[in-house]
Amino acid sequence: MENEVICDKFINRFLLRGRKFVNYTCFRYGLYSAEVSGEIGEGFVDDFQYFVFTKSIKSLESIKALLKMGHVEDAFIILRTSFEGYISSRYIAEKYKDELLNDFIFIPELIATRKVIYQEGKAIIRGTKDVIDYIQRNPSAMKVGKDKKYFHDFYAFLCNYAHCNFSIINDFIDDNGYFTYEKSDNKYMAKVMVIFVYIKLFESIVTVDGEDFINSREEKECYKLVRESTEFIYDQLEEISKYKWELENDELNKHMKMMFKNMKASLKEEIGSLKKDYL
């Protein structure tokens, strides 16, 4: 229970710092620069990352409310979108090329407004037969660094909750074998996973040299939050990796253990500007 309370405090701190970062730092630098210079540039990478971060902070508010209600399964659904946001925002920043702006920003906007039709794996300008270069990227193809080690198991776990996957039926069955909507298992594990994902988001977008914080105190608080939450989650993942998750399925148990070990190992990776010599 004590560790769960600590998790709640970290989630509140991520919300507090995240809201301030959105309010005082997130700005469409790429769009502004393009309007002034008439040229498309790397500033749009910032626009995409700030979009991901803003969306994720709003999602964190929902996740917090769902966990308080005991709706752990729904929290996992939303957490998947935040994790996808982290994966894509890190990828576009580390693998930046001009065409990525089309794939991540410009063409998706055209598809959403039906100016471009995407069908059978091709993007076609509406009213023509003109095919334009566009790759609809899935999260698995965008994982980089030490995220590669835990990605498949972690993402598959979250996807089970995002779809009507019968594998999670036990989350909706009570001790007598009847259906129930009142069961609330894995709340602590969910909170650990939430903090893990938001550490990654902050590392890749917030605690990065060159970010324009409102003041030096806010910058220090963000770095302090990532450092302290990383130390805490690093230890929690070590403990969780020792659990026996599925008594009747040794293979699933093995994968869950390995997933948490790989998540723990990935926290040593320096994604932003925060040094990890404290781990």
Secondary structure: elements and pairs:
Blueprint: H1 2-24, H2 29-37, H3 43-69, H4 72-94, H5 98-112, E1 116-119, E2 122-125, E3 131-132, H6 147-162, H7 187-205, H8 216-240, H9 250-266
Antiparallel strand pairs: 1-2, 2-3
Helix pairs in contact: 1-3, 1-7, 1-8, 2-3, 3-4, 3-7, 4-6, 4-7, 6-9, 7-8, 8-9
Protein traits:
279 residues, mainly alpha, 3-stranded antiparallel beta sheet, 9 helices, 3 strands, 62% helix
Give a description of the structure:
By secondary structure, the chain is mainly alpha-helical. The chain has a three-stranded antiparallel sheet with strand order 1-2-3. It has nine helices and three strands, in the order H-H-H-H-H-E-E-E-H-H-H-H. Helix 2 runs antiparallel to helix 3 and helix 4 (72-94) packs parallel to helix 7 (187-205). It is globular, with a radius of gyration of 20 Å. Strand 2 (122-125) and strand 3 (131-132) form a beta hairpin. It is 62% helix and 4% strand.
Strand order of the largest sheet: 1-2-3
Helix and strand element order: HHHHHEEEHHHH
Classify the beta-strand content into a percent band.
under 5%
Tell me the distance between the termini. Answer: 24 Å
Overall pLDDT confidence? 93
Shape: globular
Count of discrete alpha- or pi-helical segments spanning 4 or more residues = 9
| Helix percentage | 55-70%
Briefly characterize the structure:
This protein has nine helices and three strands, in the order αααααβββαααα. The radius of gyration is 20 Å and the shape is globular.
